[in-house]
Specification:
By secondary structure, the chain is mainly alpha-helical. The chain contains 5 helices and no strands.
Length: 190
């Protein structure tokens, strides 16, 4: 919204500037209107074109910079979503069987990857100064740690999971996934 308001202000001032040059240019040069295109019309026209080209170039560059910043955050959030899916699939495979030492190590690495993805997204948000999104990423982290608590039982017990745990896992997974998707949509609308 700020960018649009800024663009409109620059456009209005640029148009006013072009009008003033055209108006005072004819007064200063003492040109008269003879139903022909005069020097003041050329000055006004080229000033208007120059201002329009400058504004378009400056605004497009600004929009491209913003898009790159948004894409950096979104890519990282998509990596977090992918890591979340892998964590879910890994723990679902172990739902009916006991967790082995090897699968515990894999699970720890998967959870670490997910946590790192969220931390990197948080860092990027701070770098690009989207401070209003920091609250959302913190909410996602809180939900992630709640999800982690549910799927690991606070620690890796090696026991089989019961159906109640499975339903809680699904519920927590859906909450984390929803919040990440919601943050991606919020970033795109920004």
């Amino acid at each position: 919204m700020k960018e649009i308001l800024k663009f409109l202000l620059i456009f209005v001032f640029g148009s006013l500037f072009g009008f003033l040059i055209g108006y005072f240019g004819s007064k200063l040069l003492a040109l008269t209107w003879k139903s022909e295109i005069g020097l003041d019309s050329f000055i006004n026209f080229f000033t208007g074109v120059a201002v329009a080209v400058f504004l378009n170039h400056a605004y497009q560059k600004h929009l491209n910079d913003i898009r790159v910043e948004k894409d950096l955050i979104i890519v990282q959030l998509k990596e977090a979503l992918q890591a979340l899916r892998v964590v879910k699939e890994s723990f679902q495979k172990n739902y009916q069987s006991e967790i082995t030492e090897e699968s515990m190590g894999d699970a720890v690495n998967l959870l670490r990857n997910l946590s790192n993805s969220l931390s990197v997204a948080n860092n990027i948000i701070q770098i690009v100064e989207y401070t209003d999104l920091l609250k959302s990423i913190e909410e996602i982290k809180i939900e992630f740690f709640a999800y982690k608590q549910v799927i690991t039982g606070g620690k890796f017990t090696g026991d089989k999971y019961d159906p109640i745990d499975f339903r809680r896992q699904e519920n927590n997974y859906n909450i984390v996934s929803f919040k990440i998707h919601k943050l991606i949509v919020t970033i795109n609308r920004k």
